[in-house]
Structure to design on (269 residues):
């Protein structure tokens, strides 16, 4: 069940020996230390670990928003900057970041309108179809302020799929939601992803969420941020709500919690 063997990805994400420090030379803090991981095409990988261990930093390096000090990130074999330019990467930030003065539909259309010329010839997805598949067909003409937090988050996820990116990066997209709403959103994303297989890197603090969604769970340790272990989630797909109650699910929960406990202990030793 546990292991660190990586399958070479065909066109997915390859992070090799990435290190990143922040701060002035006399007070430099290493946030990522020699991090390597791969996400194959169509593979769902969650990253879990203590607060401050560098999960968001790693996600931003993969998104091309932060440059690593050393190491490389390639997407489908090309450098991350080129992949970002080609809109091969979708990003769902922690806060939905919708523009309050535009309707939901116009928010989802926005990436298409921002740079029309650069978008010419790209495979694009229809914003209203996307909204419908995320259960927001009835809310397209509303403004973000008229939606619940969960609906806003779904609109932000729909928007990230507009360019039909091969790689989807999500940083705790459901963290602001209450448990029931969160579970609904999670199962909605699971359904969508099961019929739209992207390579996904998904940051979360929730163990059941990581298990329900992922093919593999990367457990990070802190100070400096390193990959402690990678856990294979060998539950059959398609998955659904009933899987929470299975013995296999509970066994995996114990394994992931055990690993998290271990990295927390090490951090306080
Ligand atoms: N731009 C920056 N400048 C200086 N320090 C930074 C910067 N970005 C992140 N850090 C530091 O790097 C460490 C890791 O931050 P990061 O946001 O990646 O953690 P995280 O694992 O996502 O935590 P959380 O679970 O709380 O979101 C923290 O100590 C943070 O203070
Ligand atoms: Mg974070």
């Amino acid at each position: 069940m546990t292991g660190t063997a990586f399958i070479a990805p065909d066109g997915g994400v390859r992070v090799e020996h990435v290190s990143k420090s922040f701060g002035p030379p006399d007070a430099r803090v290493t946030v990522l230390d020699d991090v390597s991981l791969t996400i194959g095409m169509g593979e769902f990988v969650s990253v879990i670990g203590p607060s401050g261990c560098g999960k968001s930093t790693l996600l931003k390096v993969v998104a091309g928003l932060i440059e690593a000090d050393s190491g490389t990130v390639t997407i489908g074999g090309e450098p991350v900057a080129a992949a970002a330019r080609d809109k091969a990467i979708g990003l769902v930030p922690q806060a939905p970041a919708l523009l309050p003065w535009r309707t939901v539909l116009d928010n989802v259309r926005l990436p298409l309108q921002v740079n029309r010329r650069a978008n010419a010839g790209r495979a694009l997805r229809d914003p209203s179809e996307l909204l419908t598949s995320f259960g927001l067909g009835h809310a397209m003409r509303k403004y973000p302020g008229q939606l619940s937090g969960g609906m806003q988050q779904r609109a932000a996820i729909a928007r990230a799929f507009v360019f039909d990116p091969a790689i989807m990066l999500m940083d705790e997209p459901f963290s602001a939601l209450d448990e029931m709403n969160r579970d609904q959103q999670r199962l909605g994303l699971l359904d969508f992803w099961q019929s739209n297989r992207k390579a996904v890197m998904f940051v979360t603090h929730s163990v059941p969420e990581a298990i329900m969604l992922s093919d593999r769970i990367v457990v990070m340790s802190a100070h400096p941020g390193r990959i402690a272990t990678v856990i294979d989630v060998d539950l059959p797909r398609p998955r659904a709500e009933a899987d929470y109650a299975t013995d296999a699910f509970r066994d995996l929960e114990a394994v992931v919690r055990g690993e998290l406990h271990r990295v927390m202990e090490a951090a306080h030793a």
Observations:
- Residues 98-164 form one domain.
- The pocket of magnesium ion (ligand 2) is lined by residues 55-56 (CB under 6 Å).
- The chain has a mean pLDDT of 90.
